[in-house]
Specification:
- The chain is α+β, with helices and mostly antiparallel strands.
- It has eight helices and twelve strands.
Length: about 250
């Protein structure tokens, strides 16, 4: 498999195959299959909907799409965080240099459930964060760029919030002004109101899971939906999950 960037002059799959073949100096491109970065095979009707900066995957010998192409897109810079549901790294797109947050969840033997698309508690626990985040469209909730399974590792590629944790911010500032507190709390409120409107509960909302999107520390995003769940009507939440210091009293008692 090879990873390429789509040229701006290409207007058909045949020309795209020929371009790739000329660039990597192979003579025969008839077996080549072109995939988008979601792993779907492209045809001529798809060309007009591609952007010049889209990254495509080309199978030179006609083999099926391989998720290893995703991970080859990113170079890990450093380890950031480890938790019960995976490890988080800062990584960079090898083409654009854009930094992202890369979360890896070791599925172990549970991998087979996901591959078979079976409805199981185990596969839900692994994939729910990506499923929820990919469905959310809110400025104060971290965005997912891609999610995929690679061998026994489920990976989630997210936008990189470079402004640091709310915990660190609060420790450095000591006491916030009323306007500062209102600005931050309103964004948290708006995000929580949004996810509740989607019948989702976060279950671990605490300052460590609230990040500033950039260095000016004006806008926040909520992260880590690894133990989130669905809310079904007026049913008391009974799941014993979350960070002890921040668990609501109605869950404990």
């Amino acid at each position: 498999m090879a990873i390429i960037r789509i040229p701006s002059t290409i207007n058909s799959i045949r020309r795209l195959r020929d371009y790739i073949a000329s660039e990597i100096k192979i003579k025969n491109s008839t077996e080549m299959i072109i995939y988008n970065f979601k792993g779907f095979e492209l045809d001529d009707s798809d060309i007009n909907y591609l952007n010049n900066d889209d990254v495509l995957c080309a199978s030179l010998d006609g083999r099926a799409f391989d998720s290893v192409n995703y991970i080859n897109m990113y170079e890990i810079i450093k380890n950031v965080k480890a938790g019960g549901y995976g490890k988080v790294y800062i990584a960079a797109n090898v083409f654009t240099g854009e930094k992202v947050a890369l979360k890896k969840i070791d599925t172990g033997n549970l991998c087979k459930y996901m591959l078979l698309n079976l409805a199981s508690e185990e596969s839900y626990n692994i994939s729910r964060e990506a499923v929820y985040l990919e469905s959310f469209k809110h400025r104060n909730i971290v965005k997912v760029l891609q999610s995929f399974l690679l061998d026994n590792i489920f990976c989630i590629i997210m936008e990189y919030a470079r402004g640091g944790e709310l915990t660190t911010f609060l420790k450095s500032r000591g006491m916030l002004s009323e306007n500062e507190a209102k600005r931050i709390f309103k964004q948290i409120h708006d995000a929580v109101k949004y996810i509740h409107s989607k019948n989702v509960i976060h279950r671990d909302l605490n300052p460590n899971n609230i990040l500033f999107l950039d260095e000016n520390q004006e806008n926040i995003v909520i992260i880590d939906f690894g133990i989130s769940g669905s809310y079904t009507g007026n049913v008391k939440e009974k799941i014993n999950a979350g960070t002890v210091k921040f668990v609501p009293p109605e869950v404990i008692y």
